[in-house]
Amino acid sequence: MLERMRHASPLVQCITNFVAMNYAANVLLAAGASPAMVHAPEEAGEFARLADALTVNIGTLSTDWLEGMLAAARAANEAGKPWVLDPVAHFATGFRRRAVQQLLALQPGIIRGNASEIMALAGVASAGRGVDAGDSVQQAEAAATRLAQSTGAVVAVTGAVDFVTDGSNAARIHGGSALMPRVTAMGCALTCLMGAFAAAIPENLFLATVSALACFGAAGAQAEPAADGPGSFAWRFVDALAALDAAALAAQVEQISV
Amino acid sequence: MLERMRHASPLVQCITNFVAMNYAANVLLAAGASPAMVHAPEEAGEFARLADALTVNIGTLSTDWLEGMLAAARAANEAGKPWVLDPVAHFATGFRRRAVQQLLALQPGIIRGNASEIMALAGVASAGRGVDAGDSVQQAEAAATRLAQSTGAVVAVTGAVDFVTDGSNAARIHGGSALMPRVTAMGCALTCLMGAFAAAIPENLFLATVSALACFGAAGAQAEPAADGPGSFAWRFVDALAALDAAALAAQVEQISV
Amino acid sequence: MLERMRHASPLVQCITNFVAMNYAANVLLAAGASPAMVHAPEEAGEFARLADALTVNIGTLSTDWLEGMLAAARAANEAGKPWVLDPVAHFATGFRRRAVQQLLALQPGIIRGNASEIMALAGVASAGRGVDAGDSVQQAEAAATRLAQSTGAVVAVTGAVDFVTDGSNAARIHGGSALMPRVTAMGCALTCLMGAFAAAIPENLFLATVSALACFGAAGAQAEPAADGPGSFAWRFVDALAALDAAALAAQVEQISV
C-alpha cells in the first residue's frame, strides 16, 4: 500500500492546527504525498474539489476556520473524496463540542483520536483534560467499535498500541516509540498521512488507516534507537519515514476480531 | 523545583505566536509539562479555568487574538491561576503599545522580555526596533526593578546573562549559549516554561521564574558543545531539556541584592 | 554580497504562511538577518515603514491577511523599501487569483515562484495543481523573461537549476539538493532571504536575488552529503547557511544572456 500511495503522490488538503502545520507537511512530503495547507473559508471548499483527500483537525479552532472546515468537508463529500476527522480535545470547551458535532454530521470516512477523545466522542466518561490522553487505548476499544458502528466511519485510537476498526474488522498496530508522545503534533501528522492513504485507497478506508498507522509504527521503531531525546527523535522519524521499506509494514499489524 | 514541575506535569495554556507554537510545545513536552495552544476568543477564557497556568505572547497579534488573551487573563485571575506576559516588540507599533497596556492592567504574575522590551515597558528609552534586543541586560536591570515594583510582577530580562527580580529579591542566571539568539522562538518557549513552573510553584513566582531560566541556562550550555550551528542547536537543546538533571540547575543561579 | 548583508543585518518584515514561519525565521537568523513576522492589518503597514524590506507570501491567505499584505506593500513602496512577492499556488483558487492581481498591481521588486507559478503568472498554460511544480524551470524561462519585462520586477524561477532575470540580464544558479523539494517551506524561506538581500542591496535587485539563490544553492549542496533524509537535511541546511563562506557563492552562478 505504501508503494501505491507513493506512486499516486496524492494531493492532500490538510486543515490542521498551527502547531502541527510544518511538521505534518514534512511528514507527508517524506512519506511521498503532496500536502496543501488550505483552510480559509474563502477557498477551502473550492480547493477540496481539486484535492485527492481532505483532513480536518480542530486543534486551534476558530469560527472562521470552522466555516472553512465545513465547506471543505461538504465539497469533499460532493466530489466523492474521502475525508478524515481529528477531534483534538473536543471535550475541553463548548465551542469544540459544538464544532465536532457539526463535523460528525458530515460523515467523515475516518476518525482518529487518542483514547480520551474517542471515548468522549462515543459518549463514555473519559479522563481527558488538555490535548494529552488520560485513558489507555484498551479502555477505548469498545467505545471505538460503537462509534464506528454508529457513524459508519473507520475509527482509530492511537497510543502505545493503536486500535482501528470499521465496526466489523479490527486491528492493533504495534511498534512506535515511547518518545512519540513527547513530540508535539505526531498525532496530527498521522491524521494527515491517513488522508494520503485514503486518497490512494479510497475503496478501503480500513486498509488505508491501518497502512498509515503501520508507517508510523515502523518509522517510530526505526527512529528510536539512535535518538537521544524527543528533539532528535522528531527529525529521525522523518528520515525513517522517507526511507521506509514497504515490506516492514506488515509486521506492525495484528488482525483481530471485534 | 524541576522534579516538582515534572511530577505535576501541569497543563499550560500557551497563547503564543505562530512562529513559536511548535517549538514551544516541544520545549514544554521535553521539560515534562503538558502544553495546550488555545487562543480563540470563542474558548480561551473557558479553557483558562481548566488549565493550571496561562502564558500570553503578543508576537503575532491581531484584534481577535487580543480578545482571546484578555478573556484568558481575566479567567486566570478569577480562578487564581498564575499568568505570564511576553510583550514581544511592544514598542514597534501603536497596536502593540495599546495591547500591552490592556494586558498589563490585568496584572500578570510574571513579565519576561529582552532588554529593549523591558526598558520600553518601564518607560526608559531603548534601542529596540524589531524583535531582537538593541540593549544589554545590564542596561535594563534598573528598569526591571522599577517595573517589578510598580506592577507587582516578577520581571525577567533575558540575554547573555539573565536578570530576574520581584522588586526586592533578584538573581542573575548564567549558562546558555551564544547560539540561542540565532534560533527563533527560544524566548517565547522560555515564557511558556515559566508558565509550567508557575503552575507547579504558584506560591513563589520568583522561584518559578528563576527555575525556568536555570533550565534554559543549563540545557543551553549542555546543548552547545556538540552543535554545529543554530540548526543542530535547536534540537539538541530539546534533547538536553528532556535529559536535564535537577541537580544541574542551582549552579546557573547567582543570588544578588537589588 | 553575503558579507554586506550580514554586516547590515537587515530587519525583514516577512508576511509568510503558517507552515513556513518558523523555518523561514530560522533561515534568516542563520544567514545573518533579523526577521519579523508581522502581518496583521492593524499594524502591517506601520511596521513596513520601520523595516528594511518586506516579503509577501500567499501560502495560507485569508481576507484579513490580504489586507495586511496590501497595506504593507503600499507602505514599503511609499518608504522606498524593496518588497518581494511569492505567489504560492496562485492558480489554484479564484481567491488566490484575485489576490495575486491586487499584489502585482503594487509592483513588487522581486517575484519568486516555481515553474508552474511563474508560467501561470505570465499567462502560459501550466501543469500546477497544488503547491508543488508540475513543470520544469526550463519550460518557464521564456515566461519569466516576459513577466520581468511586463512588470519591471526581477523574476526568479526555482527548481533543480534556478533561473533569474530582470528582462535583460539573466543567470542560472546551480547547486542545491534533490532533498530540497522534500522539505516544506524551503521556497518560502528563500523568498524571505531575497528580502534580506534586497534590503542590503536595494540598488540592484537582480544581484540581490542571485545572491539569495546562490546562498541556497551552496548551503543545500553542503548540507546534502551528511543528510540521511529530509528530516536531517532541514537542520543541516540551517547549519550550512550559518557557516557559509561568501567565497563559495560565485561558483553557483552562471551568467547567461536572454
TrEMBL record, chains A, B, C:
Catalytic activity: 5-(2-hydroxyethyl)-4-methylthiazole + ATP = 4-methyl-5-(2-phosphooxyethyl)-thiazole + ADP + H(+)
Pathway named in the protein's UniProt entry: Cofactor biosynthesis; thiamine diphosphate biosynthesis; 4-methyl-5-(2-phosphoethyl)-thiazole from 5-(2-hydroxyethyl)-4-methylthiazole: step 1/1
Sorted UniProt keywords: ATP-binding, Kinase, Magnesium, Metal-binding, Nucleotide-binding, Thiamine biosynthesis, Transferase
Keyword Nucleotide-binding: yes
GO molecular function terms noted in the UniProt entry: hydroxyethylthiazole kinase activity
Residues that coordinate or bind ATP: R112, T158
Annotated InterPro entries: Hyethyz_kinase, Ribokinase-like
Cofactor: Mg(2+)
Binding site for substrate: M37, A185
Enzyme class: transferase
Any Pfam family the entry gives: HK
CDD domains given in the database record: THZ_kinase
Database matches in SUPFAM superfamilies: Ribokinase-like
Gene3D superfamilies to which the protein is assigned, alphabetical: 3.40.1190.20
EC number(s) given by UniProt: 2.7.1.50
Family: Belongs to the Thz kinase family.
Biological function: Catalyzes the phosphorylation of the hydroxyl group of 4-methyl-5-beta-hydroxyethylthiazole (THZ).
UniProt-recorded name of the protein: Hydroxyethylthiazole kinase
Originating organism: Dyella acidiphila
Lineage: Bacteria, Pseudomonadati, Pseudomonadota, Gammaproteobacteria, Lysobacterales
UniProt gene name: thiM
